Amino acid sequence: MTSSTPTSVADTDPSDADAGPVGTIALFGNPNTGKTTLFNRLTGLRQKSANYPGTTIEAHIGSTTLGPDGPTRVVDLPGVYSIHLQGVESTLCRQVLEGSAAAPGLLAGEPDAVCVVVDATALREGLRFLGEIARFRLPIVVALTMLDVARRRGIEVDPSALQERLGCPVIGVNPRKGDGLPELRSALTEARVPRTAPGASEADVREWVDELQERSSPSVDLLQPSERVSMKFDRAFTHPVIGLGVFALIMTGLFWLLFRIATYPMDWIEGAFAIAGDVVGGVVPPGLIHDLLVGGVVPGIAGALVFLPQICLLFFLLSLLEDTGYLARAAFVADRLLRRFGLPGTAFIPLLSSHACAIPGIIAARSIPNRRERLATILVAPFMTCSARLPVYALLVSLLFAGRPALAALAFVGCYALGVVAGVLTALLARGTILRGPATHMTLELPSYKAPSVRTALLTAYDKGMVFLRKAGPYILAFSIVVWWCTEFPRTGAPEESQSLRTQAAQIEEAQPDEAAALLVEADRAESKHALANSFAGRMGRALEPVFAPLGFDWRLNIGVVTSFAAREVFVSTIAIVFVGDEEAAEGEGVIEAARTATRSDGETLVFTGGASWALLVFYVLAMQCFSTLVVTAKETGSAKWAVLQFTYMTAVAYLAALAARYAWIALS
Amino acid sequence: MIGAAFPVDDWQFWVVTLAALGALAFIVWRSLGKRLLRKRSKGGSKAAPLTVEGKPVGKG
Questions:
Q1: How many Å apart are CA A626 and CA A657, to the nearest integer?
Q2: Chain A within 8 Å of B39 (Cβ-Cβ)?
Q3: ipTM > 0.85, yes or no
Q4: Closest listed residue to residue A217, CA positions, set A141, A139, A165
Q5: Considering Cα of A224, then A226, then A232, then A235, what sign does the dihedral take?
Q6: What pLDDT, on the 0 to 100 scale, is given for residue A148?
Q7: How many other C-beta atoms can be found within 10 angstroms of the C-beta atom of residue A349?
Q8: What residues of chain A score a pLDDT lower than 70?
Q9: Do A101 and B51 touch (CB under 8 A)?
């Protein structure tokens, strides 16, 4: 009886090469053939199957017992359509076959046997791939998957006929159910070099594939009635014009659903944390700990959780869409557009995700096989308008277009468009300079249309939500605490204005208690403003005056820019504290009115002039004002230098664009 | 002066300052420290990229 012993490369001691598993079997196959599921079956390792072409970027290793000689090592290689493509995955596959690639701790060398997984529903592609591997003259076993699906489609494939012609074992398997596994294990000990292999020319390959297909699947009819309908849909969905229209319609619907539905749980979370803040404020006695909890910790946790519904919902909807088979068609359409800017069609999902939050977008860039294209996508993802920018847009657009809702809506759309344009132009620049390299032609098999799995979508949403919470949540909370401390210290005495107000309030307290109370509120606000101005954050705002003066920013706006580096939405609450002296005003119209009428130190010039407001809006569309995103960029690229480059470049672009916006406004007005 | 700017006599000041320093240390450690520690350790993750002549494939 055979058994499975999972091992991993990481815990494989170098000496293991001598004492451990005997022999190596390399698992090759096109994407979506069930290769990874077969690997899990053989080794007992649990690993996610690639639902999207190219997901299996890293090679995984396990061991399995095939016979009395002891365990055999099994290497799962990335799913590729050809080993002769330019991508990293294809190169890796080629090098493993040549014996020049090895896992850490293992000696490089040709595998003892190769298991080629061939999808019976895509026999031609599978045989073509098999032909490429057969040319290496290594012992091969062919694992034929999806035989049941092929049969349902009227495609009959005869493994024995294929085996007879090839001269190596061909075994029909069902990796999901485990059918055919004992036969495959047995066959792997008897792998043979195929007696036939195609020549190098395209004509030779075609002839070889035709002959094999004729022998093993003579009655194949690829155009079954269901597939004829499917092909009609494909023609529409991938059409240069209709496809683009459908794409725009579906994406608009997805965003509409996202913003429409996510609003409710976001409001619930905000409401719950407002109550939590009140409860904590009521329970903890007044003092600095009370202030930290109410002003730093509770908003910090809320700041991390409030975007969770959007992130989970986005991935839930995308998973449903992917399951239907449409997303592969959308990637095909997007590829036509993005390729012009040096990005692959697979960048479409990360860039789309970035409209909810750049963090899951950057994480989703893992699905891009080519490293340079992946880096370019990560670099430009934060240009997409994320939901954290929306409160800032809302404030500034309200200031610029008060009482003109149509223009305000247009400005909102313009902000989204500006982010996308800046992103794709940056990609073009990066791919032409620091990330120069050949464009990877996206090869993907359009999967069959099917009903989506809600369970899979829920699991995906949960998984992505947890990734966000684990990766970004602690940072947002920690940064909130640090920013709170910087806005709280050093403390200064009460300003003369507040002292005077308190004196007046004391004088009229008995005769006019209501007016006295109002004066005390005024005094509190004056003290808040004064304290913030003299805090570390305030001093930083003043220190940055020479930098932001060309953009028309007042030093108080600089405080907002500095504090919102933790999270962009912090800008609005900071503005509320600075101009109103009361953070609660941020929830209502108070902050907009206070900001609209706020004047500079001369007492006449408005803080939010048209030029300054436009500059600020453009700055927030383009600037890299998110510490958490920078951390994720550093983690995903494996180097802090990309995060530094992203921050420097985006800040420079934002600054120059804001400067241009201000002077354009001045010139036009 | 320092007492007014930083209420050092208030024990709560030290609690919130320690919390802020802890938060800052956490940010620095999670951003840099973990990577340094990982370089020193010999194992950890289950999946590892293959190498060609000792260099990781995928950096090209």
A1: 19
A2: no
A3: no
A4: A165
A5: negative
A6: 84
A7: 25
A8: 1-22, 45-60, 86-88, 101-108, 218-228, 255, 259, 440-445, 566, 577-578, 580-591
A9: yes
